[in-house]
Structure formats: C-alpha cells, structure tokens
Amino acid sequence: MTTFNNPDSSLVIPSGLRLLVAEDHEFQRRMLVNLLLDLGVAEVHEAGSGVEALEIIEQLDQAIDIIISDLDMPGMDGMELLRHLGVSGCSASLIINSSMDRSVIRSVLTMAGAYNINLLGAIDKPPTPEALARAISLHDRDRNARARTRPQGLQFNRQQVREGLEQGQFEPFFQPKVELATGRVVGLEALARWRHAEHGVVSPYAFIEVIEKEDDLIGKLTRVMLEKASHCCRSWRDDGHDVGIAVNVSIRSLTDLGVAERLTEETIRHGIEPRHVTIEITETVAMTDVGRVLENLSRLRMNGFSLAIDDYGTGYSSMQQLDRSAANELKIDRAFVTGARRQESSRVILQSSLELAARLGLVTVAEGVETRDEWDLLTEYGCDQAQGYFVARPMPAAEVGDWITAWHARGRYELLGLAASG
Question: Which value, to the nearest 10 degrees, does the dihedral of the CA atoms of residues 328, 353, 139, 95 take?
C-alpha cells in the first residue's frame, strides 16, 4: 500500500494497480500520468482517444484496474468509450476527469450506472493529487462490494427453474432493516435464493430474468417467498421479536386482478396480519398507468399491507408515481446513498428525496448502506431506516433470530455510541 497524506485525511492507494489514462491533450495527459506515478501507482498506460484506450485494453495480458478518462475527445469520445466498456463487460473501475458542465457530468455518471460500470467518481480538470488519491483509494472497497453482488457465471433455462420451484429449492434469505434513530430492527426483506443441489446457494442474477418472463413462474416464486417468509415471521414474533417482513412483487403479478386477495389469504393463513407485511414494488410498477395494477395496489393497502416503492430515483416521473400510487414507504436507491459521499449532486438528491417523503408522510428506507459515514449522513438528513452490509448481509432464516438478539444486546448500542444498560 502507498499512503498519501493531505491536510484532511490519510488516503491509502492499493498496491500493484494498473491504470489507463485516456486524454487527447498531450500536456494534460503527461501531467496526469506524472501525478499518478508520484502517488505510487505501479503501472500507468496512456491513450490519446477512446479508440486507443480500447486497443490497449485488448492488447494487454493483464486487466486494467482503473481507467481515468476525459469526456471531450476527438474520434471516440469518453461517452462512447464508456458505452463500449459497459457492453463488453470490462471489469475496470472508472474515474471521469473533465471540465464539462456539472449537469453533463451528472448525466454521464447515471449512464455509467446504467452500463454497470464501477464508477469511483468525477474530478475536475486540472486534477489535484488529493482528488486523484481520494478516488483511487476507493477502488478496493468498491471492487469488493461489486464482487459480493456480481452475477454468478451461471444461467438456467425455463425448465430447470421450473423444476427447482416444483422441488421446493427456492427460499428467502433475509436482510434486516434497522431504525436509524434507535438502532432497533424493525423488519427483514425476503430475497430469493435457490439452494441448488450442484451449485449451492444461487443468487437471483442467474434465474430472475427467466422467471420474470413467465407469468406462472413469477407467480409461483412470489407465493413461495410470501409463504416461507410469513412462516418465518410468525416464528420470530412468537419468540418475542417485533419485526415485519418485506416481499418483492413483480409487475406481471400485479396485472392479475385476484393477486391482492390471494396475498391477503396467504398471509393470514400463516398467522401473520397484513400490517406486518410490506409489499415492495419497483418504481416502474408504481408509475405504470395500468388500471389493474393501481387497483391491486389500492386493495393491498386497504387490506392492511404496507407498500414500498423500491429503488426510488432510478426510473422516470418519480413525482408523478408518488402522487398516484398508494405507497406509504419509500426506498432510496443505493446509488444515491453511495454517491452522496462523493458527489454533491447525489447529496442534494438524497436530502431532497428524504424531505419530500417526510412532507408526504412516507417512511424512508435507505438501501445499500455500507459505512458508518453513510449511516451518520442519513441520520443527519432524517432518514427513518437503513438497510445494507453495514448492518448485515442477507442471511438464511435459521440465523435471523440469534442475529436479532445479538444486535439488540450489543450492536445497536455500539452503533449509536450508547452504553448497554443492564
């Protein structure tokens, strides 16, 4: 590791990094390369355009770790380069180095997310050693975070998924939702996992696309998730844990006019009141102008369920869908939580979303909370609940009860800086 000291902090540059600088202006490119070498970067390659950058990536025997790219370049500019990197599945992290207007930068940052590119930040020209070091130092943390959520190299066909569902191999893993003000566990989101006989626990990336294309498969998965999660919730509540569950429901299911009553009956059958269940819907679902969907959402709320708009801020017409959906909970997408520590624009969006939700009387849940800094910022901004690896990773149902007991006995007091009493 190389440590770069500045007046504000001590930043650690991961050792052995291989970087590529894409910048058409030779003087600025050389200055940037020299700054990187002074910071202790092991290996730096240079490209005068997007085309050269792609050629270098193709020719190298070892993968590039971080690409630092300008946006305004002749031939293939930075945005086209970004698109090619995303389409090719390049694993390199990206730092944007540009003097373009901040609104353009924000748009490109969103584009990078859409292409599933690991973005370390955007820094102004000319870059300072502090700004470079700060962005590069994030590489290891973000790479590890992406490794935890990167799609597995497995893909299953419709028949394989159907057999897995029929054989009862799908089950929920649970990720806690914690109240920021008190540290109390208030609920757990049920996340689908496949206990495959050959491949072990398989994440949704390997099967969800197949399931969502088939009405009967997505309906079956929803029923399995609700049935098993409700049974678990009943057990936890019987053990004295005052928690609820959250289950994701697909738009394909919500177009079925009978789904609201079936979900209600299934919940009650397992001894859980609908008020202890949150139905999570994507922003796209909530804003879809389909009478059947809106009727189901309204009926679910009328029957006592909570409704959460998931991944808020990543779709379109957010204000419109908030106005017409029956949701009483808003889940802030992880992009704005993680981005808030790097980008002023993300902090503004995060704070504005939380203020809007408060004025509308909505409970707010921040997704993807991974650091104490993010926890503290959300607390400062008045967010209600947090969910993410800083609290806990998704876990099998058998581990939840002990985890809640341990958290309430120890974890939340440490989080809040309080001394445990008794």
Answer: 140
CA–CA distance, 201 with 5 (Å, rounded to integer): 43
171 forms beta bridges with 193
Q: By CB neighbour count within 10 A (0-12 exposed, 13-18 middle, 19+ buried), where does 353 fall?
A: buried
Distances (CA, A) of 401 to 73, 153, 235, 236: 56, 32, 9, 6
For residue 279 the two structure tokens come to 């139905």
**338 token code pair:** 């993680």
Q: How many residues does the chain have?
A: 422
Tell me: the pLDDT tens digits for 55-95?
Answer: 999 888 888 999 999 998 888 888 889 888 888 878 889 99
Highest mean pLDDT pick, 33-42, 280-289, 405-414:
33-42
Q: Which residues are catalytic?
A: 367
Residues 238-289 pLDDT 10s: 999 999 999 999 877 888 888 999 999 999 998 899 999 999 987 555 545 4
Hey, which residues does 68 pair with through a beta bridge? 21, 95
Percent of the chain beyond pLDDT 90? 45
What are the C-alpha distances in Å from 263 to residues 238, 260, 277, 332?
A: 22, 5, 10, 25
Cβ–Cβ < 8 Å for 288, 325:
no
- DSSP code for 24: S
